[in-house]
Amino acid sequence: MLKPTLESITKKVEDGERLSLEDGLQLYDPEVPLNALGQLANRVRERINGNRAYYNINTHLNPTNVCVYRCSFCAFRSDLRDPKGYAMDEEQVLTRGQEAVQHGCTEMHIVGGLHHQKPYDWYVNLVRVLHEAYPRLHLKAWTAVEINWFEFLTKKSIRAILDDLMQAGLGSMPGGGAEIFHPEVRDQICEHKADAKNWFDVHRTAHQLGLKTNCTMLYGHIEKPYHRVDHLLRLRELQDETGGFQTFIPLAFHPDNTGLAHIKKPSALDDLRTMAISRLLLDNIPHIKAYWVMLGIGTAQTALAYGADDLDGTVRHELIYHDAGATTPEALSIEVIRRLIAEAGREPVERDTLYHRVERDARDPSQWRAGESLRAV
Ligand code: V47
């Protein structure tokens, strides 16, 4: 078989043909000019999402940082007895909910450590109390790794656990915990936690139950291009089966305060190349997010021309990246996020978690209603 070239890959993209593992690997060859790759990804991005660039008004809640696992890339986790260790009580969680609603947030993104002294009910109850107090706040909560931990705690099936959480008020699931699926890498950076099969079983079941989920890839540590492309193709395969992924978020590794602090963080060029390759390989996932917290504002803005169509949100109270050395601000105002998008020549569109247009009351912007569904065009 002939080795793919940028020309043969461009032809495939133009003909709407699916790219292969070999194509993905070829696009990682530094000989392939980044600008040309970006332009190709941009065509696909505009084919799917037009000129829109989405953002949302959201907040993060990390109810505890105490974690049974010791993933070498994580600066957020803590031991129970470490002075840094914490676990929030119901009142603290509700205060965060109230703050979110007052700021007009449509979404709360909830993830944290796996606290060995907290029972399953602690996690379910947290969703329940927030949902009862603030029913309009969409709870995008718990990664597949947490669901896998709940399986261990309760011996219940994934389906039964997701049923409990949905009844309590779970609205969708974030894409974390995916890291790199290939065991050559996964066994070195997070050997004890949910493996690729566990992660996919949770997302498959969530999709079967009608829950939308996101997916991620943590890159720029010990993995090679092969592991990244393999990772993306595994996500594409589940999406073919279920269609339940909304958004893919490539996550650039931040080394500070982690067990991999000797590794340099990926360059902006690698970030943009990975963004573009993700857009091209994940032909069946509608949205690609440039998560500004981790990319930095300049690269996230540039990524809107390299395949990305979403910047995530205003993001209050993010800890996972800031503990690992992210120098981005703690939150962006709506005005700044809209200006960043407009400067990139895109149309800023506020969305809710499930991609409906958000319409705000001009006199009191904390008041909003969900409008039309923003289907990929
Ligand atoms: O799974 C942890 C990553 C993830 C580091 O679904 C790190 O909308 C880089 O998944 N350097 C959690 N990455 C965050 C996440 C996410 C973020 C934004 C939006 C969404 C979404 C999901 O963060 C973890 C891990 O892959 N991570 N430590 C670090 N030092």
CATH topology: TIM Barrel
Portion in helices: 40-55%
| Shape estimate | globular
Order of SSEs: HHHEEHEHEHHEHHEHEHEHHEHHEEE
The CATH fourth-level homologous superfamily: Aldolase class I
Q: What ligand species are in this complex?
A: ligand V47
Spatially, the strands of the biggest sheet line up as 2-3-4-5
Give an overview in words.
The chain is α/β, with parallel strands linked by helices. The protein has one domain (34-367): TIM Barrel (Alpha-Beta Barrel). It contains 15 helices and twelve strands. The chain has helices at residues 6-14, 21-27, 34-49, 90-102, 120-133, 144-154, 158-168, 183-189, 196-208, 225-242, 268-281, 292-295, 297-303, 320-323, 334-343; strands at 52-56, 58-61, 107-110, 138-141, 170-172, 213-219, 245-252, 287-288, 310-313, 347-350, 356-360, 368-373. Strand 11 and strand 12 (368-373) form a beta hairpin. Helix 3 (34-49) crosses helix 11, helix 5 runs parallel beside helix 7 and helix 6 crosses helix 9. The chain is globular. Ligand V47 binds next to strand 6 and strand 7. The site of ligand V47 has 20 residues, from strand 6 and strand 7.
